[in-house]
Design a protein that fits this description.
By secondary structure, this protein is an all-alpha fold. About 70% of the residues lie in helices and about 0% in strands.
């Protein structure tokens, strides 16, 4: 069934215009770069937020890196051949088929995309409507260009999303305490990385009327 779905998707890919095929090829890598940019922006925003917000923004890319390592370990243990080499009757993949030994299950790109999307959604909830569809499109593009089975990308998305969610939730509190300590550090670079936190407004001068018309107490 998965072979048949793979053939249907790759047949559809070959029927699309050349510019769309090229866009899909670029997106499989460009999406990772865009996630990286969003990580930086989320961290920069969190520098002026609470210690908890800073912790989540810092943990999001770290959790994504952990998810990638777990995906690589799973690949090494499962040794599933790429569909562009294993599925009979399938059209040629739009991009070069990875060499033998670069296994298919799970998809690293999809794992990274799932983890990054969820990590960013936790750090910056307003962009969840952007990051989650980005992750799904990136995962689909890996099947579209012919280098992964559908189950490779589905499991990769779920694996990355689950790991990011659990790791960020478990580590937020201790990392927030570290962030608070960094904001009080005597080292300038450490304070710069952690940011100033939420700015506290300075009290203004006491109004004239309040200074000169205080109530008097008679004895």
């Amino acid at each position: 069934m998965d072979d048949e779905l793979y053939r249907d998707i790759t047949d559809f890919a070959h029927d699309t215009p050349a510019w769309f095929q090229h866009l899909a090829e670029v997106w499989t890598e460009l999406g990772l770069l865009l996630f990286g940019v969003l990580f930086i922006v989320a961290w920069w925003r969190a520098r002026r937020g609470t210690a908890r917000a800073l912790a989540i923004a810092v943990l999001a890319p770290l959790a994504t890196a952990v998810a990638y390592v777990c995906s690589e370990l799973a690949k090494s243990a499962i040794d599933e051949e790429r569909p562009c080499r294993a599925v009979s009757g399938a059209l040629t993949s739009l991009v070069e088929c990875p060499p033998h030994g670069d296994w298919s299950f799970p998809s690293n790109h999809s794992t990274i995309a799932g983890a990054a999307a969820v990590g960013l959604a936790l750090a910056w909830p307003r962009i969840a409507a952007l990051t989650l569809p980005m992750a799904v499109l990136m995962a689909f593009s890996r099947v579209f260009v012919g280098v992964h089975y559908p189950h490779d990308v589905l499991v990769g998305l779920l694996l990355g999303a689950a790991l990011a969610f659990v790791l960020v939730r478990l580590a937020t509190r201790p990392v927030a305490r570290v962030g608070e300590a960094m904001r009080g550090s005597s080292t300038g670079m450490v304070r710069w990385f952690a940011g100033p936190g939420i700015p506290h407004p300075h009290p203004g001068p006491e109004p004239y009327a309040a200074r000169h018309h205080r109530p008097t107490h008679r004895r």
